[in-house]
Design brief:
about 525 residues; mainly beta; 9-stranded antiparallel sheet; 8-stranded antiparallel sheet; 5 helices; about 5% helix
């Protein structure tokens, strides 16, 4: 993940605090390092770093607790980005403007072990020559993605010097254009024996560097409130708030006796793959996810584990008898790490159960990393279709085929049902598919992507779950310059200085975003 690389962060705070502790971990499943008085302060060890990349180890030096990368490797080795895990810390900025980034680090022996990869997910770096101000600086450069960040001070001593660009050192900043704004600061190992103690962002307009880098100042983490997600796109609200398709006939006139009842389940509350950092990886053209194989209650306690006739699934707000629907900002997100292995189109489907035909029948779904949704009218093919619609962010995804029976029917756009796809531009490619509750009493059993060029839909639906343990990405294959839309997979979505806005409603009249084919252009020229 660049975000194209795997970023699986399991925040079981406390594991990293065995032995010496600088502060007590908070009792919450979703910590957030939030700006306080113009500063975000992060203790690098306060994350489950060993699960993300076991080459990070926790070390102590007197009262100092820190993490060190590959400390027993004496080869002066440097790692490539696709060989390492990413430690990603959720952060929240509270103001609009420039923030400077610095970390408190220590080089290894002889000053040769002196750098790491660093990225802010969702924001590009703004860099200026060292010791120059960022405001109105004509030499400012914009750098996308992970950068090698280093320091060249005296080996063996912790120091706040933070640089990028070899032989022409630059200081690093980011610029927020809306507030509050959630992002992630991601750290990845590059040099062996490189130690990281703290990371800070401080608002340059009203915070002095000396105060911001005070080693005795408290860390600024807390539990998430409101469960705004970590990408700015997640602040979008209802893209389609009308009720689902009333034109579809009620195909299940009788009410089968398959309700799971009110008795509490007697099976385990969390069925987890046998590793700390699972990855649902494509196998023979299919990614298959069992929705319950995730710590869903830590993200949103309205999800509960249920069982019915041998099917184990999760259900949203099952005891709420109203036809209530939840706004995206009011729910937690279940984000499953996935890996695509091929280029091209994948269709998304989920196996779900409605409580009723046009009520209790939908959820929010998104695929991360700028893999925009592409959807076409139900029953149409995606390849070569001139009427592909495109949307970035969470969509309302629904089923209204049956009630109280599981089905693979997966739709978006009310009144004119559309099927959902994504187009993968790199292979292999790591991202996440995120599920969030919208309707009460809506049950989810499985989530699936299948490669449309190589797998039949009905055959894909029979596949077993495809989870495994995370491993670094091998070299990627990039798609040719041709693509069905004008959006590049590496293009960062534009930002503005405007406040957070509500996403446009998805309506049946959305204009196609695909460019006309050469054949269509020729026909138009002939007509003219």
């Amino acid at each position: 993940m660049n975000f194209h690389s795997m970023r699986i962060v399991i925040f079981t705070l406390g594991l990293a605090f065995i032995g010496a502790q600088e502060s007590d971990p908070l009792e919450c499943g979703s910590p957030l390092w939030k700006e306080e008085d113009g500063v975000i302060r992060i203790e690098a060890e306060n994350i489950d770093f060993g699960a993300v990349d076991p080459k990070w180890t926790q070390e102590t030096d007197g009262d100092r607790v820190y993490i060190e990368y590959d400390k027993n490797n004496n080869t002066k080795n440097t790692y490539k980005l696709n060989q390492v895990g990413k430690l990603c810390y959720p952060i929240q900025f509270e103001q609009v403007g420039y923030y400077r980034f610095q970390f408190l680090v220590r080089n290894g022996p002889n000053g040769k072990y002196n750098d790491a990869f660093v990225k802010v997910e969702g924001l590009p770096w703004k860099v200026v020559p060292e010791d120059e101000e960022i405001e109105d600086n004509e030499d400012m450069q914009t750098l996308e993605g992970y950068q090698k960040v280093s320091q060249q001070m005296k080996p063996g001593q912790f120091n706040w010097q933070t640089r990028t660009i070899d032989y022409d050192p630059h200081s690093l900043y980011i610029q927020t254009e809306e507030a509050p704004f959630k992002a992630e600061i991601c750290l990845a190992g590059r040099s062996t024996k490189f130690a990281v103690d703290k990371m800070v962002f401080y608002f340059v307009s009203d915070m002095d560097e000396e105060d911001a880098t005070d080693e005795d100042a408290d860390e600024t983490f807390a539990c998430e409130d409101g469960e705004l997600d970590t990408d700015s796109e997640d602040s979008e609200t209802d893209p389609e708030d009308s009720e689902t398709n009333p034109e579809d006939p009620d195909t299940d006139s009788e009410d089968p006796d398959t309700d799971s009842g009110t008795a509490a389940p007697t099976f385990a509350p969390f069925v987890r793959p046998q590793c700390d950092d699972p990855l649902w990886k494509e196998e023979d053209g299919v990614i298959m996810i069992e929705a319950e194989n995730f710590d869903f209650t830590a993200r949103d306690p309205r999800w509960t584990l249920e069982r019915d006739n041998g099917t184990v699934f999760i259900e949203y707000d099952k005891d709420n008898a109203t036809a209530e629907v939840y706004d995206l900002n009011d729910v937690g997100k279940l984000c499953y790490p996935i890996r695509f292995e091929q280029l091209g189109y994948y269709r998304f489907q989920f196996r779900v159960r409605n409580h009723d035909i046009t009520e209790h029948n939908d959820a929010w779904v998104v695929v991360r990393n700028k893999l925009y949704w592409k959807f076409v009218r139900e029953g149409q093919q995606i390849e070569g279709n001139p009427r592909i619609k495109e949307f970035e962010g969470y969509l309302k995804v629904y089923s209204n085929q049956m009630k109280k029976k599981f089905t693979w029917q997966t739709r978006t756009v009310d009144f004119t049902a559309h099927s959902l796809y994504i187009y993968n531009y790199e292979a292999p490619f790591d991202t996440k598919v995120c599920l969030a509750g919208r309707s009460t009493k809506f049950a989810v059993d499985k989530l699936m992507f299948f490669h449309v060029a190589s797998v039949d839909e009905l055959e894909a639906q029979t596949r077993p779950e495809t989870y495994g343990c995370w491993e670094p990405l091998p070299p990627t294959i990039v798609a040719p310059t041709y693509s069905p839309t004008t959006i590049s997979p590496t293009t960062t979505a534009p930002t503005t200085n405007a406040p957070i806005t509500i996403a446009p409603t998805i309506a049946p009249t959305i204009a196609p975003t695909i460019a006309p084919t050469e054949a269509q252009k020729k026909r138009r020229r002939k007509k003219n």
